[in-house]
């Protein structure tokens, strides 16, 4: 078993503008850097063996800030935890995206499906868990992974059997979601920083 703490990256200017980022490599803004530092303060006192991050700069910088605050080595990169590719939808305002494509599940030229995102993220987490078992078995490692809202949403849907996140739930920047990786899959433990619809 491996304990997995997934954290969404801090805020970017495109998050602030409610613009679809996808694979577009947008850096953190000052608020996002402060959110990463606040997340590190919240996580202080917990034991983490390793830190991983999506290769996109907003997630990698979030992980690097947290690792530095917690006295951990620089984050390792895991490509499978990069954000969902939104194809022709990237760069659009969220409202315009939803108007044009109908929903997050609409067919968008060049975009990944949620199923594709789920499959690659699960493969990435399995590789992380396998490496953790090889390093530390029988002790269970605790691993922090900085990733993206679309990836976390896909994993929540998978682990909850489609009940989470609820319609309208927003996954806040720097929100924390805890899973356990066991042979054969992942199980949700807790989520922090999910805002319910009004």
Order of helices and strands: EHHEHEHHEHEE
How many strands, which pairing sense, and closed or not: the largest β-sheet? 6 strands, mixed
Count up the helices: 6
Point out poorly predicted stretches: none
Mean of all residue-level pLDDT scores:
94
Distance between the termini: 37 Å
Pfam family, one: His_Phos_1
Keywords: Glycolysis, Isomerase
Protein name: Histidine phosphatase family protein
InterPro entries: His_Pase_superF_clade-1 (IPR013078), His_PPase_superfam (IPR029033), PG/BPGM_mutase_AS (IPR001345), PGM_Phosphatase (IPR050275)
Give a nutshell description of this structure.
With 198 residues, this protein is an alpha/beta fold. The protein has six helices and six strands, in the order βααβαβααβαββ.
Question: What's the SSE blueprint?
Answer:
Layout (H helix, E strand, L loop, with lengths): L1 E7 L4 H4 L13 H14 L6 E4 L3 H14 L5 E2 L16 H8 L12 H23 L5 E6 L1 H11 L10 E13 L2 E11 L3
Parallel strand pairs: 1-4, 2-3, 2-4
Antiparallel strand pairs: 1-5, 5-6
Helix pairs in contact: 2-3, 5-6
Protein described:
The protein is α/β, with parallel strands linked by helices and about 200 residues long. The chain has six helices and six strands, in the order E-H-H-E-H-E-H-H-E-H-E-E. It has helices spanning about 15, 30-45, 55-70, 95-100, 115-135, 150-160; strands at about 1-10, 50-55, 75, 140-145, 170-180, 185-195. The chain has a six-stranded mixed β-sheet with strand order 3-2-4-1-5-6. A hairpin with a 2-residue loop joins strand 5 (about 170-180) and strand 6. Helix 2 (about 30-45) crosses helix 3 (about 55-70). The longest helix has 23 residues, at about 115-135. The chain is globular, with a radius of gyration of 16 Å. The model has no long low-confidence stretch (mean pLDDT about 95). This is Histidine phosphatase family protein. It holds the Pfam family His_Phos_1. InterPro entries: His_Pase_superF_clade-1, His_PPase_superfam, PG/BPGM_mutase_AS, PGM_Phosphatase. Keywords: Glycolysis, Isomerase.
